[in-house]
Amino acid sequence: MNLMKRILYIILFLSITIGQAKAVDYNASAFGCVSDGQTNNTRSIQAAIDLISSKGGGTLNFYVGRYLTGGLELKSNVTINLHEGAILVANPTYYDFIEKNGKRYFIYADQQSNVKIIGKGVVLGQSAAVKAKIEGQLSKGLINYTIETARPTLIGLNNCQNVEIDGVMLEDAAGDIAHLDNCSNVSFKNQIIRSKGYANSRGIVLNGSKEVSLANLYVDTTGKALVKDKTSQTKEVIKSVTPDGKTI
């Protein structure tokens, strides 16, 4: 092997090694996250996401327990791994959800890439508790929305690329389960998507989004399982059905 080839191999090896080094695992508890279902973990979880992204990326691991949290913003190169028995529970207080352009979200990402939510855990929207909180704010005249427009979406992605949501159960949204606006290369797979506590809670809503893959999904919602505008395109829909056995 001549000198030039050796140099090229060394450069390749170093680039792979550095890339692997960035894929660091972090434990949510190390950031002060508490899985008692009562402690509000919003600041701790968001600080963890921000730090991991700033360091080039990695995986934030949640183990058995109920992690109560307000709205969270996902960042590039960060993987959220909800291990079996781990539940991200939405804090039902209306103002704890993330507000963007007059809408509210539990989990949100804007112009981010290489984001993942994976595992065997659950993202839980607590629709009944959220509805009660919204109705309380409406009755006091503190918000200027109808209850239909005030309901938060479980997951919102705006102008994002290379997003993977795999394995986790998405459940009990007060609004829709997922909104994708102007996104590309997004996949939902190996999931139960269920939202039965609130009327017209839709499954996956696509606006101006392309290369969206849906595989091995069971979608049981009070609204439509899949909604897309004329500019959106699904790359593939594989073994993804509603309770009556129809393809979404």
Strand percentage, roughly? 35-45%
What CATH first level would be assigned? Mainly Beta
- Briefly note the structural class of the backbone: alpha/beta
Q: What percent of the residues sit in helical stretches (DSSP H or I)?
A: 10-25%
Q: What are the secondary-structure elements, in order, as H or E? A: HEHEEEEEEEEEHHEEEEEEEEE
CATH topology-level fold name = Pectate Lyase C-like
Protein name: Pectate lyase superfamily protein domain-containing protein
GO molecular function: polygalacturonase activity
InterPro entries: GH28_Enzymes, Glyco_hydro_28, Pectin_lyas_fold, Pectin_lyase_fold/virulence
Keywords: Glycosidase, Hydrolase, Signal
